[in-house]
Amino acid sequence: MGLTTETGRIGAAVRAAGRIESAAHDKAPSIELATQEGRNKLIGVWLFIAAESVLFASFFAVYLALRHSTMSGPTTKELFELPLVFAATALLLTSSFTSVMAVLNMRQLKAGPMKMWLALTGLLGLAFLLLEIYEFNHYVHMKHTFVSSAFGTSFYSLVGFHGAHVTFGLLWLFALLVRNARRGVTPYIAPKVYAFSLYWHFVDLVWVFIFTVVYLMGKVA
């Protein structure tokens, strides 16, 4: 009887220890937050995004103030082709999804799938950028240039500034993939991947505002 009771107590203690260990594991931070250096990097990225948000807000305000100053040039209704813009939007939003998949695989320590999803993100971003270059070239042939009117200046400043951010993101991603081509997922690499993902989501979110304010309002209003 005494032996049975003691065995039961030991079993209960083992189960309790297992629950404590499982709870501790569940509360463990994600790999990108596992080190102080990683947390500091992500704080820096959030501060950078906050500063860039202010800049973009300024560009949006200027565009809204000058969008009707066409100087007898083509108007927004005459310029914009929504099917092309829809295609570009689909590419960029899909790239946001692929970057999410990269982060999910990173947290599961799957380096190969993570890099595959990152590479796919880069290809989608590059396709978006090529469409934007084609769009700008088309507008130039319609006599809508940076210096043709105040509308042209504000338009190219806003959309071009976003395009510059996409270009920077692609260069960042290329460097990230090349430098870590033979490395697995570590607490050193994870914050860099997550920081890029945050930046890329910011770029995508800005495009959603551009799509709405510039293209949809320009075509419909």
Can you walk me through this structure?
The protein is mainly alpha-helical. The chain folds into 2 domains: 32 residues; 187 residues, Cytochrome c oxidase, subunit III, four-helix bundle (Four Helix Bundle (Hemerythrin (Met), subunit A), Up-down Bundle). It has 7 helices and no strands. Helix 2 packs antiparallel against helix 6 and helix 6 runs antiparallel to helix 7. The longest helix is centred in the N-terminal third of the chain and has 31 residues. The chain starts with a helix and ends with a helix.
Q: Which CATH architecture of the largest domain?
A: Up-down Bundle
CATH class designation of the largest domain: Mainly Alpha
Rg, Å, rounded: 25 Å
User: What is the name of the CATH superfamily of the largest domain?
Assistant: Cytochrome c oxidase, subunit III, four-helix bundle
